[in-house]
Design a protein that fits this description.
By secondary structure, the chain is mainly alpha-helical. It is built from three helices and two strands.
Length: about 140
């Protein structure tokens, strides 16, 4: 899971750098030669596609985490949590989490991880308590 997270973060960083380069190039075209508005708009469109690709891959990343933790994702038909975007490929529209959807999913993940930590903490403290009791009994029996 750790290597997957590192690969995912590197991949997102490459996409964000590509998006920044497209925006910088679009700004340079707008400043230096405003007559090339077609190229400018295509660069802005590419930057928008990259932004949506980043959000799509984040959605897929959270789906993998939710599947591993056995947490349900929000309902796909709820427009409060998802929007559709078509990347002009053969697969059609893809569902992408909105900001509110991201907050909801991250909150669910945090709650589940907290509950798991609390359960583990309970058992660890029980084992340490039992070991302490056992050591106490052994010391009383020896005397």
């Amino acid at each position: 899971m750790v290597s997957y997270n590192l690969k995912f973060k590197r991949f997102l960083k490459r996409l964000r750098n590509k998006q920044k380069l497209a925006l910088i190039e679009a700004a340079n075209i707008l400043i230096n030669s405003p007559e090339e508005s077609a190229h400018y708009s295509s660069l802005l469109n590419e930057a928008d596609n990259i932004k949506n690709a980043i959000e799509y891959f984040q959605t897929e990343h959270y789906k993998i985490i939710c599947d591993s933790l056995k947490i349900p994702m929000p309902d796909l038909e709820d427009s409060k949590f998802y929007y559709r975007y078509n990347f002009d490929d053969d697969e059609g529209d893809k569902y992408i989490l909105t900001k509110e959807g991201l907050y909801d999913v991250r909150d669910r993940i945090r709650k589940e991880k907290k509950e798991r930590r609390e359960i583990a903490g309970f058992w660890i403290s029980m084992i340490i308590g039992l070991l302490g009791t056992l050591i106490g009994l052994i010391s009383v029996i020896k005397n």
